[in-house]
Every structure is written in structure tokens, then in C-alpha cells.
Amino acid sequence: MNEAFLSETTERKRILLVDDHPMVRERLAHLIDQQPDLKVCGEASDVIGALEGIQNLRPDLAVVDLSLKNSNGLDLIKDLKARESKLPILVLSMHDESLYAERVLRAGAMGYVSKQETTRNILLAIRRVLSGDIHVSPDLAGVLVKRLVGGLHNPDVAPLARLADRELEVFQLIGRGHGTRKIAENLGLSVKTVESYRARIKEKLHINDGIQLLQRAVQWVAQYDGKST
Question: Which of 4, 14, 102, 170 could tie 197 with a disulfide, CB 3.0–4.6 Å?
């Protein structure tokens, strides 16, 4: 079936883009709008815009980054699923897939694809999630099966994968140079609660003191967790 006929006879699926980088949204929108079966119905750079877009535009799919203005993409996914349980969500991000993909699936997303993938693979991920399938890379699929069989105590599981979502978020903010009080303000938590998270992180990562925790967090952020552009 040629593309001209397809575009005339098939309703194009409506996609909402949620990313805090305008250039990324522009490039992705251009790619999607060239497809005969897909179109971008709206864009958002933060949680408020995403929630308004979902309510007002009723998209068929939300493509969400994990790094958003003043928010965490994981929290947005959980919020979206609580409001619109049937809305398919695909995460498109530069974050470490081996660490984040399983988390976004648990949060309610149906797929994870890296921004470093080819345009062909990004479009494949979009269409697979729209069709109701789960999408992760082949390498990660094998890792997830091992974790399912062996659990988090499997020696093959990376130490950071043992951190709960909020613990990882605190670890990330430590690596970005935020102190305990600043982290508490950012996450809307008490200082005592953040201190509890720090203690759990040190225990799970076998870290003895705050200096080692800071060094480990800074190294990880520098290597894996730089914000996408």
C-alpha cells in the first residue's frame, strides 16, 4: 500500500511530545509529521503543560522525557497513569537505559527508547507502543528477564538498580551538588526524610560516609545522567 493511499484512508495517530528542550521537540515533531500514520497534536515542556495537553488534546500516545522543568519524568508518568490509565506512554530519553527502563515500565509506561537511537528505531518504538506492545532494546530485554528470574538480589543486578525511585532521585540531586536542605525543598520533603534516604542509599551502595556518597553520586551524574540536548 503506497503512502498517499495510506494517508487518505487511515486516521493518523495523535502524539503529545513532553520534553523541556524546544530543539528536541522541533526535530521530533518534524520526523513524526512526515509519517503518513502519525502526527503531533501538541507539545509540553513541563508537568503542568503535559497534564493540560492530555486533558485538552486527548492524544493517542504521550512521548515523555525523564528530565523536565522542575519535575521528574517518573512522577509525571505515575500521575498520567492515575488520571488516564489507558493512555500509552513511551519514554524517549538520554538517561541510562539499564537503570531507568525498568523503572518507567513499573511506573506505567509501555516503552523506553534512547534519543541516541536511529530515527527508524524511534518510529518503530512509537508504533509498537501504539499497537499495545512493550518496547525496550533487545539487550535490555535480556537483562529484564534475568532480573525477573533472580530478583534484585541477583549478583548481576547493578547496585544502583537496587535503589528505590525516590532514593535514586535523591542520589541524582546529590550528584548535581545539592545539599540536604536544597534536596528537601526540591522534592517537598522534610530534611529528616532526606537524611533517611541518604542513609538507605549508603547502606545499599555499601558507602561508609557522606564524602564517599558525594563522590560516587558526582561520578555517576557526570557519566550517565547529563541532561539531554
Answer: 170
Closest by CA position to 122, among listed 20, 221, 19? 19
Cα 228 to Cα 51, 66, 134, 194, 208, distances in angstroms: 22, 9, 23, 26, 32
Burial class (CB in 10 A: 0-12, 13-18, 19+), 39: middle
φ, ψ at 112 (rounded to 5°): -140, 130
**3 state DSSP class of 36:** coil
For residue 61, the cross-strand partners are 15
All domains in the chain, ordered by first residue? 3-144 (3.40.50.2300), 159-224 (1.10.10.10)
Reported as a single tens digit per residue, the pLDDT across 3-41 is 443 444 468 999 999 999 999 999 999 999 999 999 999
pLDDT tens track for 87-127: 999 999 888 777 788 889 989 999 999 998 999 999 999 99
Q: What pTM was computed for the model?
A: 0.72
Q: Are 65 and 18 in contact (CB under 8 A)?
A: yes
Write out the three cell numbers for 23: 530543539
Helix H, strand E, coil C: the string for 210-226 is HHHHHHHHHHHHHHHCC
Q: Where are the beta strands (DSSP E) in 65-204?
A: 67-68, 71-72, 89-93, 111-114
